[in-house]
Amino acid sequence: MSIKCLIASLVLLLIHGSAGQKCNARSFQRLCVTDGSNVVLENEKLSLTINKAKAQISALYYNSPSDSSIKSTNLLRGGSGYYIAVISVDGKSVNTGPDVGEMKIRQNAEYIDLAFINKNTSNWPIHFELHLVLEKDSPIFYYYTIHKYLRDGYTASQLRWAIRANADPFKYYSVDGKRAGRMPTQQAINSAETLQDWTYKLSDGSVYSKYQQISNNEYLHTVFGIYGDRIGLSVLQTHKEWVSGGPFKQSLTTHTGQMLLFCEHTGHYGTPDVVPTKGWSKVYGPIGFYLNDGKSLSQMYLDAQRQLKEEGKKWPYKFVTAPEYNAQGRGSVSGTLNVNGSPNKQWAYLILTEPHVDDPQFETATYMYSTVAATNGRFSIPAVRPGNYKLQVIAKGVVGRYIQTNVNVESNKNTNLGTINWQEERHGKQLWQIGVPDRDSGEFKSPPGYPSPIPNLEEYRKFGTWLSYSKTFPNDPDFTVGSSDPAKDWGYFMPMIKTPGFPAQLKMVNITQNTQPTNWKVRFDYSGSTGGTATLTLGFAANVKAGIRAVINGKEILKVTGFDGPKADSALFRQAAHGIFRQQTVTFSASLLKAKNILEFTPPGPVSANHFDKMVMWDFLRMEVSN
Ligand SMILES: *[C@@H]1O[C@H](CO)[C@@H](O)[C@H](O)[C@H]1NC(C)=O
Ligand SMILES: *[C@@H]1O[C@H](CO)[C@@H](O)[C@H](O)[C@H]1NC(C)=O
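Above: query sequence and 2-acetamido-2-deoxy-beta-D-glucopyranose SMILES. Below: predicted holo structure tokens.
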């Protein structure tokens, strides 16, 4: 042992010794930690046993004030709390996790922070620390990680922390308060028919998929959890500065097997890999795991939402002392946002990105700070690391993005941007619009899917909506501006062939494949000048290996054979109404317009049986004419 190590060990021993805070599992007496191959971390409310070599929580006990049987139940029996990374090293894909060579204890009277440091870089060639933090007398334990660049040729496609909990007490779940109820049991899943990845047809004919339990990264739904009769374990996502893909990115939350997931990064719904470059480091989290008790699932869920608000006041958490987190030196950005002269009536997201970030959807390596403007247009983006940023604004009902560069944030100061006047991109007078620009297709008609054991699902979250497309729209949508209703007469996705669906799925519902191309129509009247130009703007909420062709009165005006970026975000098959957003704007001569017009949408080229899964998802369509 080197002198340096010896001194470090002595210091740690002294810290332990002076506080006299070694503990026995489940004494619930005070904040304490006991080192060993199994580390015990405990306070008055919680007791965790951690396998040091793998940084895995093997036991969790809660000092329940109301249920003494909970107190003696290992809430992780049959499971654990563990980290998984799906990475690629020099092009070779590897599933890995921490191989801990060192644990550092940092403690004072208020909290204990345990850092588990991955030392096997042949296993995982970055510097990786997983931290677990417990404050005194608190029913929350926190988790965060620190990743640092070590070499080129390293990319990550999935980084996540998961808890697989004891299925006996945890019978229920809540994704957002609405999607909440009894979790399908493992026996029900085991005897089910597998239809797709993590998608099961249960014996009662309903179909369960873990993708029915996704939620947006944005801050409106940031509590989810698993629950029992008198016990709750909720994930409190206090802040989302670390998320990949921006506020609209969707991630898994909880699913069968009594799983709670905290995804630092995933490729779901089209998000690209994390590709670090020299100098890269990132802190993910902290995320709180909150134990509570209550009389019902909804009461415990509401209590967790209340606790999340409290956590918001503590952000950035003082217990994270890593310089990368910069808890003490953050600034803020405020102002007022007006769109077309007044505060936007619906949500407006303000996102601060690094200057080089063109599109938050594709950003995975850096921090992004976002907020939603208040109804009076006021906004404040708190807890921003000092630096130079680009402000990007996306608002419901508004086409395009507002961009402001050179937003400087200084340590412990507020940058007031004053009043921002965003004039929406316009191309003359609007003739009509179908749908609302909001990067989501949820307002359009969904063909019916299979019933699901998850309650209160929007139709598009049900399995197999695409399998009933040919029944709902046997002749494809034919929409007449002025009399048709987007919610009934326009579909949320447009397949490239008449019977979308994997061949085995079509067989299951007795549909004979029809490989004719689809042809969607919009009919509208026009009586204005034909001297200028017309502009058609299309928003697409998702895409699977497809494109689009637009024809007006028999004349082709647009042909997109494929979109830039990810070729397939799988949003349709993973029960979502959006994946990666794209916009297409095409200008054409208004002389093509007549009194009665037919605008047709078709696939961009010949189709075949291979097009069974190709589709685009609509966000909005807008037609304008310049005078
Ligand atoms: C490091 O990880 C690799 C790959 O998992 C493994 O083969 C090797 O034994 C590990 N090395 C040590 C020192 O544990
Ligand atoms: C499909 O056809 C088979 C055989 O005729 C029948 O047993 C089954 O119920 C049908 N399924 C559906 C979904 O109509």
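The radius of gyration is 27 Å.
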